[in-house]
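Quick one:
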Amino acid sequence: MSDPGVTRPMLWKDEWSRAHEQSPLKVTPENEGRWERYWNVCAAQYARDVESEAPLYRQVIDRLVREGRLRPTDNVLDIGCGPGTFTIPIAYCSRHVVGLDSAAGMIAELVSKASMRRLANVEGLPGKWEDFQACDFDLVVSALSPAVCDAEALLKMEKASKRDCCYVTASPGDEMRTRNELWEMVVGDYRPSHAYDVKYALNVLMENGARPDLKHVSAAIEMTVDAEVAISNYQTYFEIFTQMNDEKKGIIKDYIDDRSEDGLLHRKVKKALAVVTWSPNDRIEA
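Output:
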C-alpha cells in the first residue's frame, strides 16, 4: 500500500498532458470540428507551402535512408499525412506507403499528388490515428502531426511498427511570426504553446525503455502566397479560437494587404525540425 504522505513524482506523460491542457491551441470537443474545417479549407495552400519547404523535408527522408530506417522493400505508415508532405517523398524510397489523415481535404490533395506523379504505391486513408488498428509496418512516421500529441498516441506507433519509428516536430523558429502577431490583434494576449516541444516525446520514450536518437535539421524557406487565400485561411483559422466578426476580419485583411505586393504575400523564414528515431525492439534492460 502506498504511503499517502509521499508525493508521486510527475511522469513525462503527465507533463506532456499538462502542457496540452495549458496550450491555447489544444483540440477540445468544442473546437474539434472547427480544426477539421480549417485543415480542409487550407489543404490546397498547405500543399503549395509544402512544395516550397520540400528541401527541408528531404533532409529528413535522406537521413532515414542513410540510417537504414527507410528501405526500398518497406511498407510505411505516415500518421497525419496532410497533403503528402512526407508521404510522397517516402513513396520514392519504399514499396508501399499509407497516408492517414482525419481531414478529407488533405487526403484528396495526397491522392491528387500521387496520381500526377503516377505513384501507384501510395494509399490515402481518411481516419483518426486513435481509431487506427492496422499494424506490421516496417516504418511508422508521425511528422508535424497533431494526431500524435501525447504518450498514448506516441507509444501506439510502436505497436504498429515491427522495426522503426520516426517522430518529427517543429523546433523554435520564426515561421509562426505572422500567426502570433495576428493572434495578439484578433484574439488577445498570446501564450506560446510548448506542447509540441521534442522534450516530451523524447523523455516519454526513455521512460518506457526505448533508445531514441535525436537530430535537428533546418533551412531558410521562401514562399509566395496569394493574399486573398492567406486572408481566407487566417480568418478560418481564428474562427477556432474566437467569435469572428467584420472588425476582426478587417484586421486580418489589413494586416495581410499591408505586407503584400501586387496581391501576393512574400515570406522568408527559417524553419527547423527535431527528428526522433527509434526501434521498438531496441529496449534498455531493466
